Amino acid sequence: MAPVKAAMMKVGFVLDIARKDERFMNDLSRDAFKTLLQSGIDLSHGEVMAVVDIIHNTSISTLAPHIGDLRDNWNAIVKERRFE
Q1: pLDDT digits over 7-50, tens only?
Q2: pTM of the model
Q3: Where are the alpha helices (DSSP H) in the chain?
Q4: Strand, helix or coil for residue 10
Q5: Which residues of 35-48 are buried (b: 16+ CB within 10 A; e: fewer)?
Q6: How many whole angstroms separate alpha carbon 54 and alpha carbon 75?
Q7: Dihedrals φ, ψ of 43, to 5°?
Q8: Which residue in 25, 27, 51, 69 could disulfide with 35, CB within 3.0 to 4.6 Å?
Q9: 81 Cβ partners below 8 Å, 6+ apart?
Q10: What whole-number distance in Å separates Cα of residue 72 and Cα of residue 68?
């Protein structure tokens, strides 16, 4: 369970950056995989796929069963940006 918690913390960190940096958020929305690879953030393939799952509302990553709250966070970020 500890590795899952650590992975969720790293994925949450990506979402925190997206909340603070509109350009990063837009880049994630356009091409999450490429953006994450170019970002220099140390993420495993599973963590990258979890971010892609969150952004595209899919469930293909092995972490998919654990990302419900983070998916809600992403939706809140998108909603905040619409009102700015």
Answers
A1: 999 999 999 999 999 999 999 999 999 999 999 999 999 999 99
A2: 0.91
A3: 2-20, 22-39, 45-56, 68-83
A4: helix
A5: bbeeeeeebeeebb
A6: 9
A7: -125, 140
A8: 27
A9: 22, 25
A10: 6
